[in-house]
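Next comes a concrete protein, fold included:
___
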Amino acid sequence: MLEKYVKKILSSKVYDVAVETPLQPAGNLSQRLGCPVTLKREDLQPIFSFKIRGAYNKIAQLSPDEQAKGVIAASAGNHAQGVALAARHLGIKATIVMGRNTPSIKVNAVRGLGARIVLHGDSFDDAATLAAELTEKERYVFVHPFDDMDVIAGQGTVGMEIMNQHSGSPDVIFVPVGGGGLVAGISAYVKYLSPRTRIVGVEAEGSACLAAAMAAGRRVKLPFESLDLFADGVSVAQVGRETFKVAKACVNEVVTVTTDEICAAIKDLFDDTRSIAEPAGALAVAGMKKYVEAKSLVDRKLVAVVSGANVNFDRLRHISERAELGEQREVILGVTIPEKRGSFRRFCNALGKRSVSEFNYRYASDAEAHVYVGMKIAAPEDRAALLNTLAGAGYRVEDMTDNEAAKLHVRHMVGGRRLSGKSEILYRFEFPERPGALLRFLSVLGTEWNITMFHYRNHGAAWGRVLVGFEGDAGDRRTLAAYLKRVGYRYWEETENPAYQLFLR
């Protein structure tokens, strides 16, 4: 199998449109991790993503009759740009089906390359279903984003370049994984030349279809309601059939990372390259950092593939907020202090000379008040030291660093007040973000329950996030939960969340 792929990779036609990207040393990451790190800069391709390689290799090898029919693709954006650019270069008509929550920067780029765009659904699977229907109806040639041997071979040229450019064989190569085309292509080539080089696939925690397949020994389809769309470029419910066959033979391990860890990796890449990767583009770096720490690696030659840089500018607001948390350089605390003269000063003295990133105060009663405080820390172990210091000074402290409701909503709402005499049940919702999504959410929510509190903030993420209070007491919980289940959105009850109890009641 590997020999077959190596031959296809060596004969790929990608360089009609793609460029050989540099393998760039990453000084800051190397120093921090204690291992020499190099970055394969696929974000420097003409479409700012590796996807041009596989798309062009597939389309260039179609027969004249197939090319005359035109091509169609379903894509979260980067593959779409690759197909559109390849089709324009070869003079072929292209139709692209994209999810309605695809970042506008990708939609506009595809439109600028001359392809016809059809926006449909909220996920890759939705787009792929419509693309299959249009393929049958219009007799187009479907260009799969990952589960195709020619596409895999095109992506495999990344591995060929790494092996040509690296001084000696790398010890570990970290590759982002969505449907598996890139990791299959790279691993097939690298393992043929250097079996000792470890290939580590990296997936977003909310769309880890390869990890699930590896664990089960077969392809597993993740439910859409659990699919995380933050790293939209790798948000795939099921790894490809062909890509999984290669991955089973060639990929050594799979690492999953959180949104905060991805955001921290975007910052790391900016610090080393002064470039801004998209979430999927920074996935390999996030996984590399986690892997090095877990394995206690020292002086190993590491390569991370930076796969793309197509990120909406407004998403940077969300990324920058979460980067410090992902790096474990910030803690979020809810602290109860006495409501009396001099309390603020005494509390600040207890904090010492630590850097405060956020400070919100909420009067609770004549006896006490609550403070929502964000603190910069130098290292993860400083978190425990800070908690011990405050507890030793006699403060009641709630660590909310990992509290999603606190980070996404409550920090922007401190100072709100519950209606006097009204009982309240609190829920947090997520829905696919796109124009009109909030109005649709409100329409679906209906008017059956009285809303006592509502917070929504559009921060450029793929998911819209809302915190909603409903008038009701403990006896209404079961009825309300049954109603919300019919509404169809992901939700979590947050009534007992300490951030709500401290700052919003």
